[in-house]
Amino acid sequence: MDESTMNTVEIGVNIVWSPGMRRYIWTFDGPGVDPTNGNFTLPDHGKTAIIYTLDEQCADTYQLVYVNLDPENCATYEIEKVHVHQETNSITIIDRNSFNYTRTTPFCLRLAARMTNNIGSGFLSPDPQVTNNPHPPMPCPDPK
Length: 144
Known about the structure:
Immunoglobulin-like; 5-stranded mixed beta sheet; mainly beta
């Protein structure tokens, strides 16, 4: 990870197939994370690593393979890097979280997963919203 990263948000992901609903159910676990949809607010300003990792219950069955930023509501200016870690079954998103351009506007992303080693079985998560910290840093005094 980049040494300039100031914050880390670790989010556990669980995926189960619901035969009755005939769909995948995603749940999320982490400080301040809504378990049903994955929404959360970044904890502080500064470059932040958001790490999504499959939990032990589903890591043998599924793989996280990609992050798809929502084209309607994304903050691509703030996203610096997306890295898939196959060995840990996780995805790291480096967000600048600078507050300069997006302010507190939430951005959305979808995680893509598939059944382990089955390229034809891909499916998407719900559309979690990530909100920059709502308390902006104090502006620098004008050097005049």
